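Fold it.
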Amino acid sequence: MKTMKEYKGFALFGVAMFMISIAVIGLLIHGFVFYKFWQWFIIPTFGLIQITYMQSVGLMICKGLIFRTETNTEADKNKNIDERVGKIIGAACLYPFILMLLGWIVSLSV
């Protein structure tokens, strides 16, 4: 019978894989939102060329490298793991869709 110490490595691996998958999904979602904003606002306003979806994902990677921000505060350190994971998922997946909805509403009036 395996002890808890033997399962700890599997648990850490599972958490790491979950966080990596959330990061990749968040990057793809942010890239899609940026792609749509480029089509709705940048092309008509400045007359620039259209970019592909993968170019927008690449620009999101560059933006993340240049404008890196830390969001860990003392209040976040006191939260339990469920609240932290919820915040990460919300920031990676939910927030971009809210921005996209607002952008779509604005694009209807442009």
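The helical segments are 4-46, 53-66, 74-77, 81-109.
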